[in-house]
């Protein structure tokens, strides 16, 4: 049973009106090491920034005198009817941002008629999310060296009623996230740094009360059987380093298909040739993604990669996208560039850290309202009408 979350922003006069406002709430609510974990990216964070800037640079094409009195934002994604073309993306360690955050987010998704995707490295287990919700949710999986445990996780997800498996394919090796390194989250640290981290935590008493104490147990719910010393961050990092498998290939996708009878989504596609290969290998959908700028820096922004990947696969697979989506206008832009739906990660992570389930529901309401405006003022009444004509592209664009 979840305790009501105490809002960490009582002293603030800010009424959040945008995802950027929720980012600020999260910055204030969380110890810096946790906020940086959500907010940061790999290396110099150029791709992280470019994901956002690429979308901001795209202009919508405003049109007038069209009957836009009825606008339908409903979408069908992998056979599931959604109120909005939005999925809450898998976010690792989310339960460190708010008490039982994965459950809160899944409840918010259910309330707003969209889907939640549970991460392999979540704090709440698949079974806990299932016990606290009634709507279906998706499950994200890494292909681990321990294929037996990966198979067990797939079985648990199926038992919980998951029909969509999101296979993350861009983690053959882990990119260096310098904010995490500076904050001492990745390597052994000296005593002085430990004291700095301890002060970072105790200077956020609301987080200590609501999450560190009120949100227990802070273990990796899906991995407790697999990770020796799962409560120990160093032991967990050692396990992760040993389990990410750089030998994973399309042959492993065949193995996943043998063990998963539902839909399979490949997340981490940026190149049109990889998109074609994924379609040929029998994926039901792809997610055009650079892992939110958290893996290889200096790769293409997803808004730039999306049209090429969508063109490469045509209607053979459904094309989803993530990266840089900070508004409903961004969702409309991504759909106009060829996506069927958008996954949002940081947006819901900021919201759950700032205001729990109510914050996540509000972020989805914000996206819905912004999409309504963007659709109306570009002269569109349903998502299937969107395309390049909704964008103010340069001549020859």
Description:
This protein has 397 residues and is α/β, with parallel strands linked by helices. The chain has one domain (42-380): Alpha-Beta Barrel (TIM Barrel). The protein contains 15 helices and 10 strands. The chain has helices spanning 19-29, 32-39, 46-57, 101-112, 126-131, 147-159, 178-182, 191-202, 205-213, 233-243, 250-259, 272-280, 302-313, 328-336, 346-377, and strands at residues 75-77, 80-82, 86-88, 115-118, 138-141, 164-168, 263-269, 285-288, 318-322, 341-344. The strands form 2 sheets. Strands 3-4-5-6-7-8-9-10 form an 8-stranded parallel β-barrel, surrounded by 6 helices. It has a two-stranded antiparallel ribbon with strand order 1-2. Helix 5 (126-131) links the parallel strand 4 and strand 5. Helix 12 crosses helix 13 (302-313) and helix 14 (328-336) crosses helix 15 (346-377). The termini are far apart. Mean pLDDT is 92; it is low at 3-12.
Provide a count of the helices. 15
Q: Tell me the CATH architecture.
A: Alpha-Beta Barrel
Work out the number of β strands: 10
Regions with little confidence, pLDDT below 50 for 5+ residues:
3-12
**What structural class should be given to the helix and strand makeup?**
alpha/beta
Give the CA-CA distance, first to last residue: 53 Å
Overall tally of domains: 1
Taking Cα atoms only, what radius of gyration do you get, to the nearest Å?
A: 20 Å
Helix content: 40-55%
Broad shape? globular
Provide the spatial order of strands within the biggest beta sheet. 3-4-5-6-7-8-9-10
- Main beta sheet, described? 8 strands, parallel, barrel
The CATH topology is TIM Barrel
Q: Give the CATH superfamily.
A: Aldolase class I
């Amino acid at each position: 049973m979840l305790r009501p979350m105490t809002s960490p922003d009582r002293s603030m006069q800010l009424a959040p009106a945008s995802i950027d406002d929720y980012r600020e709430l999260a910055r204030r609510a969380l110890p810096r090491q946790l906020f940086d974990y959500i907010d940061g990216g790999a290396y110099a964070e150029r791709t992280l920034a470019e994901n956002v800037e690429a979308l901001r640079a795209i202009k919508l094409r405003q049109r007038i005198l069209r009957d836009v009195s009825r606008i339908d934002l409903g979408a069908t994604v992998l056979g599931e009817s959604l109120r909005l073309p939005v999925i809450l993306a898998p976010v690792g360690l989310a339960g460190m941002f708010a008490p039982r955050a994965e459950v809160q987010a899944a409840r918010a998704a259910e309330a707003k008629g969209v889907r939640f995707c549970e991460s392999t490295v979540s704090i709440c287990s698949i079974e806990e999310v299932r016990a606290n919700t009634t709507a279906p949710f998706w499950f994200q999986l890494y292909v681990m060296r321990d294929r037996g445990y990966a198979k067990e996780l797939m079985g648990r997800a199926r038992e919980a009623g998951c029909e969509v498996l999101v296979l993350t394919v861009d983690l053959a090796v882990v990119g260096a996230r310098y904010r995490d390194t500076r904050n001492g989250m990745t390597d052994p640290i000296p005593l002085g740094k430990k004291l700095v981290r301890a002060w970072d935590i105790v200077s956020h008493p609301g987080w200590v009360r609501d999450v560190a104490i009120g949100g227990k147990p802070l273990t990796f719910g899906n991995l407790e059987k697999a990770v020796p010393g799962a409560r120990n961050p160093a032991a967990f990092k050692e396990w992760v380093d040993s389990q990410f498998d750089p030998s994973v290939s399309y042959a492993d996708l065949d193995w996943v298909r043998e063990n998963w009878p539902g839909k399979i989504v490949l997340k981490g596609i940026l190149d049109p040739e990889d998109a074609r290969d994924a379609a040929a290998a029998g994926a039901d959908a792809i997610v055009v993604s650079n892992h939110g700028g958290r893996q290889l820096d200096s790769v293409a922004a997803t808004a730039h990669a999306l049209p090429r990947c969508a063109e490469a696969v045509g209607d053979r697979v459904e094309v989803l996208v993530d990266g840089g989506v900070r508004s409903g206008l961004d969702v409309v832009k991504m759909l106009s560039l060829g996506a069927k739906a958008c996954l949002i990660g940081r947006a819901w992570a900021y919201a759950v850290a700032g205001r729990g389930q109510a914050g996540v529901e509000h972020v989805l309401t914000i996206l819905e309202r912004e999409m309504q405006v963007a659709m109306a003022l570009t002269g569109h009444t349903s998502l299937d009408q969107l395309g390049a004509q909704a964008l103010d592209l340069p001549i020859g664009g």
